[in-house]
Amino acid sequence: MRVNRTLEIIKTYAIMFLGLLLFSLGVTVFLIPADINGGGISGVGALVFFVTGIPAGLIYLAVNVILVTIAMIKLGASFGTKTLINMLIISILLTVFQKMFTEPLIDDKFLSSVLGGISGGLGLGLVFSQGGSTGGTDIIAMLVTKYRSISPGRVIMYCDVLIIAASWFVFHSAEILVYGYVSMWVVSYTLDAFLNGANQSTQIFIFSEKWDEIRDQIIHDHGRGVTILEGIGGYTDKPVKIVMTVVRKRESSSLFKHIKMIDKNAFISVGSVMGVYGEGFDQLKG
Q: When you count CB atoms within 10 A of the terminal residue's CB, does the N or C end of the chain come out lower?
């Protein structure tokens, strides 16, 4: 059990590292060399770099020291630990890659903004899929999506609008401003596409002898309600307990990992649902 847990942790951080690598390359290879300001705290770091020459990674680290404290208070110590590690890694990657890639890789600002957005969106998607964050506006997105029915990509987009708009005061160029917004839109679209409909919901039926442990896990660690159904096994004629719950699709991968840790032989039935209304989901209108 402990070995499996260790392997799961290693896998989680390996996937997040790949995401951080893609995100950092998107910023330092495609955006900054082309004088394009992306969103997020990395965008703030880029703006400061354009004005002062201070590496974007250092600014990213300084701003996130404050924001990660909020994440640990509001989202729990586990989330804060992941964010802290990711924050340190991405600050290092941004600083190192910025020294390595000083000239534009592609002599086309539009293509640079698109490729930078795709790389950034994929990177964020990988990190988000493992329950982590790169800090900055990601923390805001995770906070909002925890309490509101809205995709993380859309929250990040709203925050980034102001950050990218600030590039006007540095470059006084409408062209660069537009390229920044192109990159922002591509990041948002790619992130939502990667998470495969982050706002969709999934109905899950779990058949397991350890149904009580799974029930407690869903209620206490995932903050979702459950319904216990009584059933009879058609083959064994024995009574069984069935755990039924509904979660956001983006939450299902984390839930499956925890179920597997409790009972690797659990039988799980998953189905997409068109709409879920009530506490924690959408509200009926009209």
A: C
The two counts, helices (H) then strands (E), for the chain are 11, 4
Question: Tens of pLDDT along 57-71?
Answer: 999 888 887 777 777
The count of residues in the chain is 286
Is residue 248 within 8 Å of residue 185, measured between CB atoms? no
User: Which phi and psi angles does 195 have, rounded to 5°?
Assistant: -75, 0
Other Cβ atoms within 10 Å of 178 Cβ, number:
15
pLDDT digits (tens, 9 = 90+) for 140-162: 777 777 777 777 767 777 888 88
CATH number given to 201-273: 3.30.70.120
Instruction: Classify burial at 152, counting beta carbons within 10 Å of its beta carbon; exposed 0-12, middle 13-18, buried 19 or more.
Output: buried
Domain ranges in the chain are: 2-194, 201-273
**Closest of 274, 146, 151, 96 to residue 201, by C-alpha:** 274
Residues 6+ apart with CB under 8 A from 162: none
Q: How confident is the model at residue 79 (pLDDT cuts 50, 70, 90)?
A: low
Helices assigned H by DSSP within 26-76: 40-52, 56-75
